[in-house]
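Journal club prep, notes for RB
We'll compare a predicted complex against what the paper describes. Inputs for the nicotinamide-adenine-dinucleotide case:
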Amino acid sequence: MIEHGFGGVFQGRRVFLTGHTGFKGSWLALWLAELGAEVHGYALAPPTQPSLFAEAGIESRLASHRIADVRDAPALARALREIQPELVFHLAAQPLVRHSYAEPRETYEANVMGTVNLLEAVRGVDTVRVCQVVTTDKCYENREWVYAYRENDPLGGYDPYSSSKACAELVVSAYRRSFFPPEHRVSLASARAGNVIGGGDWALDRIVPDCIRALEEERPIPVRNPQAVRPWQHVLEPLSGYLLLAARQWEEPARFADAWNFGPTAAGHLTVRELVELLLAEWGEGAWEPPPGEHATPHEAGFLKLDITKAHNLLGWYPVYSAAEAVRASVEWYRERHDSGAAVAEMCVRQIEAYSECARQAGLPWAAPVPAAV
Ligand SMILES: NC(=O)c1ccc[n+]([C@@H]2O[C@H](COP(=O)([O-])OP(=O)(O)OC[C@H]3O[C@@H](n4cnc5c(N)ncnc54)[C@H](O)[C@@H]3O)[C@@H](O)[C@H]2O)c1
């Protein structure tokens, strides 16, 4: 068990986690289990092959798990009624911009109605005290300007994915005001994270998995938008934000029921090219090139920055890793798996411990060891 930990809030708590078979969901399930939570998962089958869910044996760390659809409102409501969770993290979504151009209806159904179905299910059980909906940095109306987006900037979205997540934000806001006002037992928050990198992601059209696939096959990395700027962060950064936010919601429900950005420091906003070159330096060899037929790629935002002043000032959350450290941790993960077939779950736990230790050394309050019970 991990000793650092969010004031011990998760110890023995019953947690319902959607999207537990995905990249971020698998890491979060593992971290919650290590913090002593009783984790119940609800998601479709792992979206990739290989998957972190299978490789790390996440199923064995869960109290229960269902392969089920968030678009299936009765099944979702039944799951919550049976499990009676105290905390809910909603990560299940169709999360890819390019896939959303191919499947807009599926994207809106999963991301918007999936969120409505989840919140309706939460209304139907009286055990839930904390509910957190994970959206994205892409929920803001992107103006292609140099300023970082703050939580009170207008929502929007050019492509169906971004727009569906802005819609999910509006759903959360309406439910908070209509059904979960400050005096209500449920504290409802949303979390908007940046572009996540880290071991265990094999999604299509994401830059780090694209790099690793190409490097392992000894071919140049296809880079679509080398000049695009993104708020890159290691996967453990937003997850520490989600956990801290949930812990604060648990302690002061009304105060933290709001929308929160979790992104890198200003120095962590790099172009795709800069990120790929950091990764190549860490890997030690390889090259990148624009993919053939580049003119045919659908629109993706050119400039996207996230402002984290609010999370820093009000939650006491702050990023732990620099961009170079985030890339190093990611490359180490894939390298170790590739070279030695290392036990993946142990590798992930080791990375969570190392990250928590760096956070403790940086003086972040969430990472202080939990005092022993008297
Ligand atoms: N990876 C990133 O860079 C990033 C950045 C910001 C926000 N996010 C958000 O974080 C969350 C997790 O993303 P990820 O990167 O782990 O994606 P992922 O594709 O690895 O995982 C998605 C999860 O959702 C599940 N899912 C998809 N459709 C579903 C449905 N209809 N019913 C039930 N389950 C369904 C999948 O089975 C999987 O468990 C998403 O909400 C995503 O929008 C991701």
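Talking point for the session: The chain has one domain: 6-196+235-264+298-322+346-367.
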